[in-house]
Amino acid sequence: MPASSRHLLKIEGLTPPEIGQYLDLAESYVLLNRSGKTQRDLLRGRTLINLFFEDSTRTRTSFELAGKRLGADVINMSVSNSSVNKGETLLDTAATLNAMHCDLLVVRHAQSGAPNLLAQKVDAAVINAGDGTHEHPTQALLDALTIRRRKGRLAGLVVAICGDILHSRVARSNIHLLTTLGSEVRLVGPPTLIPAEAASLGVSVHHSMEQGLAGADIVMMLRLQRERMASGPVPSAREYFRFYGLDRGKLAYARPDALVMHPGPMNRGVEIDSDIADDPERSVIREQVEMGVAVRMAVLDLLSRRGPRNAR
């Protein structure tokens, strides 16, 4: 394994075997969690710090649960954005974390590249839990695990990622992972929410749900991230739902057995209809949450074995 694999900062650049190692180990943790025998001693004596500069209930709780199920000492640190001066204060934070001798550091930050900067300055293994509009690697891994468990494969599947692609770190991580493992990826959304570099990412771009979802195996909906928008790229929530919100009519364009995904939190009635989100036959949104704990257990497990602290 390359030295950089001591951290998990992005999906881009990972090879199929590296991705497969995370997914295969996560599969074993799904079975372990479902058996009820969740407490392990793999991380006993290790300290995991969840350092979140942005609010997140789902991801932070998932990492906390994963760490505790592996026996780690888990500390949650929430830092208000208003108190963070990017650069200098982040480096001060790194110095403080080194003084604490933590082993694993999970970071969410509004600025793209912040986890990478910390990874250069701290002794701990760093896991990117979402940085700006850059990447969210563990979300892509849990999405891939969810798909693989339901479909048996990723290669050859048609995955339509729909909605606010421009502001979505989830979309970027999924694009890298899915194309690396042989899926056909389509980006679907209004022109104002599709990044300019999309054509260079090995995907196709569609501005109509009918064309984008035609024959799709997976329909992945994304949250409309108004908090990251400088101006209104969509006229209104009602108008957006009319053209790009997933309802029964639009889902009918996809394959009859197509699965519906959403990384959460959902804006019901904006990007997805409640009838679809809660459909036990088509929606795997709740399953994604379950897979998230198993994937994060696998990531913590693997990263704890690498790097200088492995000998401790």
Describe the structure.
By secondary structure, the protein is an alpha/beta fold. Helix content is 39%, strand content 14%. It has 11 helices and 9 strands. The strands form 2 sheets. A 5-stranded parallel β-sheet has the order 7-6-5-8-9. A 4-stranded parallel β-sheet has the order 2-1-3-4, sandwiched between helices. Helix 5 crosses helix 6 (169-180). It is globular. The two termini are 20 Å apart. The model has no long low-confidence stretch (mean pLDDT 91).
Secondary-structure blueprint of this entry?
Layout (H helix, E strand, L loop, with lengths): L15 H20 L11 E6 L5 H12 L3 E6 L9 H13 L3 E6 L4 H8 L3 E7 L5 H15 L6 E5 L6 H12 L3 E5 L15 E3 L2 H5 L4 E4 L15 H8 L3 H4 L7 E3 L12 H4 L7 H20 L8
Parallel strand pairs: 1-2, 1-3, 3-4, 5-6, 5-8, 6-7, 8-9
User: Treating each run of at least 4 consecutive H or I residues as one helix, how many helices?
Assistant: 11
Q: Could you give the distance between the termini?
A: 20 Å
How many whole angstroms does the radius of gyration measure?
19 Å
Average pLDDT, all residues: 91
Beta content comes to: 5-15%
Task: Sum up the overall morphology in one term.
Answer: globular
Core attributes:
312 residues; alpha/beta; 5-stranded parallel beta sheet
In short, what is this structure?
With 312 residues, the protein is an alpha/beta fold.
